[in-house]
Amino acid sequence: MPETPRVVVDSAVAGAAGISGCDLVVVVATPERRRGSRAAGLDAAVDAVASAAPGALVLARPPWADGEAAPLAALGVLLGCDVVWLPSGLVEAGWATALIVTWSAQSRGAQLMRRAQVAVGLAALPACRLPRMPWGVEALAMPAVGADALSRWCDRAWVPCERCELGGGAPGGPCARCGHSGVAA
Prior knowledge:
Blueprint: E1 7-10, H1 11-17, E2 25-28, H2 37-51, E3 57-60, H3 71-78, E4 82-85, H4 90-104, H5 109-124, E5 132-135, E6 140-143, H6 147-157, E7 159-160, E8 168-169
Parallel strand pairs: 1-2, 1-3, 3-4
Antiparallel strand pairs: 5-6, 7-8
């Protein structure tokens, strides 16, 4: 039986997603802001990403959104993981991460990557025609569709990025791999 894919995410996003302690997730602790902690934090991040299953999916917010967790995406690439850029907002990133972790129990490889790219796009796009419901502490209006139905919709909605070879996402949204805003509509 193939190994269950693991998702790697920083502690702030894991907390926002409500997934701390889930065995499908490797949580990378964000280093504290004190002298000498940056190097220790990087060592811990390298160890955490390396402990993930081969082919793990690293979910990272852009560096300008959380500078302390900025090395996570680079470490993922260096250690051979797929990387998906989350929305910069913590609540939006948490919503997308919660869905991706749910899907990672059954989805693998390209299917999980495409679903993740669409989920990120949905979290970053303004309200669309999907029914909405409040999610998270800030009661952000996110699609009120079950994870199974939304995963099937993501399978059909994914479109390739015009710029990068492996990226894509929701129609009209940003590419979850390179950030290009020209994902075909």
